Amino acid sequence: MRRMETDMMEVFSETFAIGSDQVDRTRTMRPGALLTRMQEAALSHARALGLDSDRTLNRNLLWVVTRYYLEIGRLPRYEEVVTLETYPGTVRRVLFPRYFRMKDANGNVLMRASSVWVLIDGERRTMISPKQYGLEVYDGAAFGDELPYNMPAQPIPPTRSEEFTVPYSYLDLNGHMNNTKYFDLCIDLIADEVEGRALRSISAEFQNEIHYRETVSVSIGEQNGAYLFTGTTEKPCFRIGMQYEAPSDDGGEQ
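Request: output the structure for the sequence above.
Response:
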């Protein structure tokens, strides 16, 4: 692995306005839209570092995210201009950490996040080392304020469960349910309970793929504003924790 040499290569940055397709009816950015933008920024940076589709996807080598941890000061609002930054961390054998920051127009940090990515063989669906395929992956920067990427979701006993069948529109180019759609699914299951309340953190672990027309049993637990979603088919598929501001005693926001 080779360490990146210039700031331009170390940190990928893009500035954009929050669009109407990225917000809910409160005009606040949806978690799924935030994760989508993070995913695309990570892939854009990988391409800029020489890991474009010809060297990966077109050889049936697939980038897959396995973990996310986000701490959120606030989610941006419709038409707000924000800057999203991302950079890779120190490679851990076949695990590739990547970090994110989102800032408002004044440079205030709205969100920080960590993630772990792996490269898999698309045929065997197993993790691989890039060296096996002649790929060079950069060791990244460290600024000292990175979030840990191994933060598990808070254990909360489930109180209910729902069945969900994966539609075609949830699939991505890797042939499975895209990771960002998991967050849309979770929000759909608790929307009436959390609308208008501030989301403070997300912890996600993706354990096994979910495919087209597969039915997933999603268990939901809640405790003082914290939610835990666990999805299973014949095997465990995901665990996602979302921490919201707890509702006040009179039913309003804190």
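Residues 2-139 form a domain with the Thiol Ester Dehydrase; Chain A fold (CATH 3.10.129.10).
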